[in-house]
Amino acid sequence: MTSVLNVKDLHTSFVMPDLTIAALQGVSLSVDKGEILGLVGESGSGKTLTGFSINRLLSAPGRVVQGEVLLHGQDVLSLGEEDMRHLRGRRIAMIFQDPMMTLNPVLRIETQMRDALRAHEKMSKAMARTRAIAALDEVGIPAPESRLRSYPHELSGGMRQRVAIAIALLHQPDVIIADEPTTALDVTIQGQILSLVQNLCRDRGTALIWITHDLAVVAGIADRLAVMYAGRVVEIGPVDDLLDAPAHPYTRGLIDSVPARGQRGQRLKQIPGRMPALTELPVGCSFAPRCEHAKAACAALPDMTALDAERSVRCFYPLAEGSA
After folding, report:
1. What positions does the domain ABC transporter occupy (predicted)?
2. How far is the C-alpha of 191 from the C-alpha of 55, rounded, in Å?
3. Which of 90, 95, 237, 251 could bridge to 311 as Cys pair (CB 3.0-4.6 Å)?
């Protein structure tokens, strides 16, 4: 299947007069039509920055310094700013973590949805209102006509996030990047949002990149999983295969760190140490200082190596199936 979005060797840096910080170093991933790709890792691993780089939402001094972001074969990094504004929101949409930061607190929901529609399509207010009502209804908001008159603060957190998803879906984009959109929601509402997103991707064929630190979430929603550490993808593959038999020691550590049933009274597992600051990255494998399997060869940087047709790992000593 031809990928809808193909990110190749993406490098993003923060370039300052006396210092350049390489935040993303050679990120490569792809997502197909109707597929959900989970992007996981600890805070600071580069997940959100990857999403912002793809959508060209970086603020100075951040900039993409190398790589390609191909949307149906077109490199969006080569587009002028005017062309990118026409593409952003229409063909590549983004759902942010906090809907109160996404939605304008002083504008009614109708105004915000109408402006989002008319930014890319010429239509009357009546047509825009009809489209907005249909979008709200599609994401399960009851009485959508009356909700259009509401301000964001008049809605619950779950409702606000549904509005943010509805806005992202207005133009039926090819790709949606969702940056931890359920983190602030209770588990019941989170489950509803996850089910909603799965159904919409299946029905519309929208490709989705779901950014999260919660392995339980991606286990239930994603088709494939990409694990990031210190600005690099260290493992990628089908979600069930990767969670059942991780090949990278970091992936194994993330899975073991999740509290499990039947461990009452037992000490919780954790990955020793902490992720290095981007200004203090070790030479070679960034995870080596925290890895119990590290050897002398890890002083060099491992390449992504294919384990089979669907799985790849960045490690000199990938774990055997079932290893801990």
Report:
1. 5-255
2. 27
3. 237
Total residue count of the chain as it appears in this document: 324
Band of residue 262 on the pLDDT scale cut at 50, 70, 90: low
pLDDT of residue 193: 78
Complete domains list, the chain, with CATH: 1-82+175-184+213-259+269-324 (3.40.50.300)
> What sign does the CA torsion over 187, 193, 194, 195 have?
positive
d(CA 297, CA 285): 9
> Long-range contacts made by residues 131-138, C-beta under 8 angstroms, separation at least 24?
131/170, 132/166, 132/170, 135/166, 135/167, 135/169, 135/170, 136/109, 136/162, 136/163, 136/166, 138/166, 138/169, 138/200
Q: Looking at 13-22, 156-165, 226-235, which range is the least confident one?
A: 156-165
CA 310/CA 290 separation, integer angstroms: 27
Please report the pLDDT score of residue 175 as a whole number.
Answer: 94
> Is residue 263 very low, low, confident or very high in pLDDT (cuts 50, 70, 90)?
low
- Chain mean position to CA 300: 29
Residue 281, C-beta contacts closer than 8 angstroms, at least 6 positions apart: 22, 230
pLDDT surpassing 50 at residue 80: yes
